[in-house]
Design brief:
InterPro entries: Leu-rich_rpt, LRR_dom_sf, NACHT_NTPase, NLR, NLRP_HD2, NOD1/2_WH, P-loop_NTPase
CATH superfamily of the largest domain: P-loop containing nucleotide triphosphate hydrolases
Strand order of the largest sheet: 9-10-11-12-13-14
Strand content: 5-15%
Subcellular location: Cytoplasm
GO molecular function, one term: ATP binding
Helix content: 40-55%
CATH architecture of the largest domain: 3-Layer(aba) Sandwich
Keywords: ATP-binding, Cytoplasm, Leucine-rich repeat, Nucleotide-binding, Repeat
CATH topology of the largest domain: Rossmann fold
Shape: globular
Pfam families: LRR_6, NACHT, NLRC4_HD2, WHD_NOD2
Number of strands: 14
Number of helices: 30
Largest sheet: 6 strands, parallel
Number of domains: 4
Length: 732
């Protein structure tokens, strides 16, 4: 997996024996950021992973010579052990190991419409609560008593997919686990791209493993066979599951995409094949969900693991704490640090800087961090600079096409000599890499963010009219599928800040150009603040050093008065909600007292309310319509709300009953509730009493003054207060 070179284990054993980062080192090699350990318990058991014992609905395979299978297996293990013991791309071992629990929850097979790094923002995802190993994920769930044939694991670039595949293969080859599967064939998608001719499945395997050319391998259907397809997002050819020709014979020639579709849909080796596919999120939907038995997702570092990373990576405790504080102030950059590679970049750049955290500085921009990284890592000479420009062109053209791996023909299209590229790759490993593929070299940037960085650098340098090209880039990013140009745009706008002098010398007033760019982005945000791309546009404004839209959103949040009347109140509500939801921590106080808002507007702002500790929502003409949504918010595990004032709203019994249903849930941690003057009667008091009985340990203060419960209502409430664990201290 492209990433930081961090070793992540699912067990706490051996933590003390892990070596730490030497500050003289820069980036760790990215090939091994996930290490699940070499013990059998730390790796997925293929026998359990695919549950072959539940194959009662499948045809029993024919008998095959056990000695012959063992011979093939031993030969294959020797091949894989030799190949996977050495890291790819010419990298060398790095002395940095960090033990962290692998966040490996069940995932969903679906395609997002944001850049993958926007999808990890707290606004768009809820982190899995707790940690589980791949073993528990794959093997413990029940799927109608049928075996799991195909598992798909997704994760953003640098999170640990390829490294886990490599380590699992090596573990199998060394005989340390998963020995119930005698044959295991890793077939990376980036290498499958190189096979243009028609091949049978057997011939395909011979291409990857020519040492196995012998008759017995044709009997694949007679034994259990594992196929690991790593990097679905890197496969450039279409997978047509609807119109693909049917292939059932392992000796029948066909195109590579046809072989893949028939292997995945079960026409080829329906009983023998067990398939593991890894992919970045954007490519997951290329395989219909009906063929996937299990979907999982590798998540990145938790906040505590980020801090552990930097404290163990930086020897100076004070500097490590300063860097952590610096990154926490940068909300979006701190979120990105759940990606091991981004942590590695920040550690490589920031440990060289002697500073103390100062809130007057603005560490939120991502571009300066990558600029410093390039300056640190890249060998500086004239040839390097020329090569960087050509690589920028390659990066941009391939980024637009959605490609992250390149071949010799791609380099030639950008006038890059493959021999010069090989030399550059050897001396600039963290930036650009060369790897051995099937009969030719494969090239790729050290990480997708580096490709986007180079693409932005080249695009700006090639501009004839900066103002027009910046607007063009914004439009390109908004129209791009899956948000693939979002981070490119962020880097591009960040670069424009640094090119003031060079562009001014060409006769352009850059300050005016940047002002126009800021206004254009703000206009796009306010036209549709609920768009999935809005958060990235706000990050782009951060790169430009502009926070005026955030200020306007906070102003509306506090006063209820739109800063610009030409945009509807609903748009300002959406913006304020997004700003609060993307914060890294809760707000101290939320007061919405200036102007009445009503059910509809406050329902739109429920994420704001959940992120707050105190919400004053009195005199807002709220009804039971709002109470239903509020009750759901109160039961959320991520709700920070401790004090809620709903006084003098027309909630009535029906609204309070809905609210009480939320109060009764164990996840509700509300401590103070004011319902004064809400026209609550007997039934509402009875519902509140029932909630106190169900969840008595959180509510400390309850204000029910100005209502009409009657004797029966009071009786119900007193009955609720008799619960042994009731913590209520103040009742009005």
């Amino acid at each position: 997996m492209v990433g930081s070179g961090i070793f992540i284990s699912s067990s706490h054993e051996g933590r003390d024996c892990l070596p730490l980062l030497s500050p003289s080192q820069l980036l760790p090699p990215p090939w091994r950021e996930t290490n699940l350990g070499h013990s059998k318990s730390a790796f997925p058991d293929l026998r359990k992973m695919f549950r072959p014992g539940r194959e009662k609905h499948q045809t029993e395979p024919r008998e095959v010579s056990a000695s012959h299978v063992a011979k093939l297996s031993n030969k294959l293990k020797a091949i894989l052990k030799k190949k996977y013991q050495s890291p790819p791309g010419g990298e060398t071992e790095h002395p940095f190991y960090i033990h962290c629990d692998l966040q490996y929850p069940p995932g969903e097979s679906g395609e997002g419409n944001q850049h993958e790094y926007i999808q990890i923002e707290p606004t768009y995802r809820k982190r899995h609560q707790g940690t589980c190993s791949p073993i528990g994920l794959y093997f413990d769930s029940e799927l109608d008593n049928e075996r799991v044939r195909i598992v798909l694991t997704k994760g953003v670039s640098g999170i640990g997919k390829t490294s886990q595949v490599r380590m699992m293969i090596l573990n199998w080859a060394e005989g340390k686990g998963n020995q119930e599967c005698p044959l295991l064939f890793p077939l990376p998608f980036r290498e499958l791209n190189l096979l243009k001719e028609r091949l049978s499945l057997i011939e395909l395997l011979h291409k990857f493993f020519p040492e196995l050319k012998e008759p017995g391998i044709c009997n694949l259907e007679n034994c259990r066979v594992g196929f690991f397809f790593d990097g679905l997002d890197e496969f450039r050819r279409p997978l047509d599951f609807k119109n693909s020709p049917i292939v059932t014979d392992v000796t029948e020639p066909s195109s590579v995409p046809t072989l893949l579709t028939n292997l995945i849909n079960g026409n080829l080796l329906p009983s023998a094949a067990h398939i593991w596919i890894t992919s970045r999120p954007a490519a997951v939907s290329r395989i219909p969900l009906q063929y996937i038995n299990e979907v999982s997702e590798i998540e990145g570092f938790t906040d505590s693991q980020k801090e552990e990373f930097f404290r163990r990576a930086i020897n100076d405790k004070n500097q490590a704490n300063a860097i952590i504080a610096y990154l926490k102030y940068s909300k979006s950059l701190y979120v990105l640090c759940q990606i091991p590679f981004i942590c590695s970049i920040c550690a490589s750049v920031l440990w060289r800087k002697t500073f103390l955290f100062n809130e007057e500085c603005d560490p939120r921009a991502l571009t300066p961090v990558y600029t410093d990284l390039l300056a640190l890592l890249q060998t500086q000479n004239q040839n390097t600079q020329e090569m960087a420009i050509k690589l920028g062109e390659l990066a941009f053209k391939q980024l637009v096409k959605g490609n992250t791996v390149f071949y010799e023909e791609d380099l030639r299209e950008c006038n890059i000599d493959v021999h010069v590229a090989a030399v550059y790759a050897r001396v600039n490993i963290p930036i650009f890499r060369e790897d051995i593929g099937l009969h030719q070299k494969i090239y790729y940037f050290g990480h997708t963010t580096i490709q986007e960085f180079f693409a932005a650098m080249w695009f700006l340098q090639s501009c004839n009219s900066p103002d027009e090209n910046l607007r063009k880039a914004v439009d390109m990013a908004l129209q791009s599928k899956n948000g693939k140009l979002d981070l490119f745009l962020r880097f591009l706008l960040g670069f424009s800040q640094n090119f003031i002098q060079s562009i001014a010398e060409a006769g352009y007033n850059l300050s005016e150009t940047l002002t126009e760019a800021v206004e254009y982005i703000k206009k796009k945000v306010m036209e549709n603040p609920a768009s999935p791309r809005t958060l990235n546009l706000l990050n782009c404004l951060t790169e430009l050093g502009d926070s005026s839209l955030e200020t306007d959103g906070v102003h509306f949040l506090k006063t209820g008065i739109p800063p610009d009347a030409k945009y509807p109140r609903a748009h300002w509500s959406d913006l304020a909600t997004l700003l609060v939801a993307s914060e890294s921590g809760p707000i101290d106080m939320l007061g919405l007292e200036v102007k009445k808002r009503g059910d509809e507007e406050l329902l739109r702002m429920l994420p704001v309310i959940k992120a707050s500790q105190t919400a004053t929502l009195s005199y807002h003409n709220l009804t039971e319509i709002f109470c239903e949504g509020l009750a759901s918010a109160l039961t959320s595990k991520v709700c920070n709300l401790k004090a809620l004032d709903l006084s003098f709203n027309t909630l009535k019994d029906s609204g309070v009953q809905l609210l009480a249903a939320g109060l009764a849930k164990p996840h509700c941690r509300l401590e103070r509730l004011k319902l004064s003057g809400c026209r609550v009667k007997q039934d509402g008091f009875a519902a509140l009493a029932k909630a106190l009985k169900s969840n008595p340990s959180h509510l400390r203060e309850l204000d029910l003054s100005g209502n009409e419960p009657g004797e029966a209502g009071v009786f119900h409430l007193v009955d609720g207060l008799k619960v042994v664990n009731c913590k209520l201290q103040i009742l009005k």
